[in-house]
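Q: I'm writing up a methods section and want to include an example of the input and output format. Could you take the sequence below and give the corresponding predicted structure tokens, formatted cleanly so I can copy it straight into the document?
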Amino acid sequence: MLPTRPHHKAKPLKATSPRPAKALCSECGLCDTRYVHYVKDACAFLNQQFETLETQVHGRPRQVDQWNDCYFGVHQQMFTARNRQPISGAQWTGIVSTLGMEMLRRGLVEGVVCVQQSETDRFQPQPILARTPEEVLAARVNKPTLSPNLSVLDLVEQSGLKRLLVIGVGCQIQALRAVEAHLGLEKLYVLGTPCVDNVTRAGLQKFLETTSRSPQTVVHYEFMQDYQVHFKHEDGSVERVPFFGLNTQELKDVFAPSCMTCFDYVNGLADLVVGYMGSPFGWQWLVVRNDRGQEMLKLIQDQLEFQPVTSSGNRRPAVQQSIPLYDQGLTLPMWVAKILGAVIGRTGPKGLEYARFSIDSHFARNYLYVWRHYPQKLAAHVPAFAQRIVGQYTLPKN
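A: Here is the clean output for your methods example:
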């Protein structure tokens, strides 16, 4: 029988209690644990503390006067990579799953916090404390909905685990880092994924029904480097919808308010980040932030094929043009959107410049959202690096 001793300071949140972040709650799961005692300090939407936490985790904060740091956070190395033997059923080649399984196999960790899907709904996240490689493998493929990953922290304490890998997105990892010292772990590894524009399950359904030709058969989707949303369907076909053809007016309110006020797209507090946005098609973008990230990558480097990161094109005109399109809820005719997407796809920013394009456009949108809906939070909530990025553009004045 597992011990159930509560943390010495923490108290469980009653099921009927309101979330302290209210409408800005990202449902990270911390409030569902005994560590709710720390939420007012730990929640990214109540207490933005990038500089403090970056120094705690990496030994220094990002240098805002250095553009590379400003965009991508503290890091030692960047690569693009892919599995030499891709995992069947993975969203890309399965680097995240490979690493989680390998860390368990080699005994580097005793458990992995990851997200499987419910038995009845492929898009409904089910956070678990995985103890076997098979359980990690069952968590492959992104779930593009708000997920309470940290809700399993009580299980970590009850199980007595001392070496843990947590896989998560920025808001979850910020809260995790804020309570890390209270978890009683000997070693914590954090594998992050870039994240933007999550939704509730109902919001996801609206997005699918508004955007895809066959929402009921979508297996997964991603906003890709060719300026199109790629929907993979059950029959293996891939449906592509241009960014500029999305029904923006219908979708403006579908994204969670927490995502609309988030400035941690690149998961700056993880040890190692695995995504796609700074890489060519079919490859993953790896950002090694510290020595723990190097240790993690070394475990699987022989299973990967690498190439250097590249960057080309000029993102700024495309970003400036996209700001009023989104802000005014404009939707282009599909034939125009396809032509525009094709032209920008051929001539527009690629590699790291595409990553900067995505960061710029989302930060500008989110800055406007905070300014209009939470003006009292603007100065304290928008970190210095985001202010510098947004400052490159002309924003609407109303």
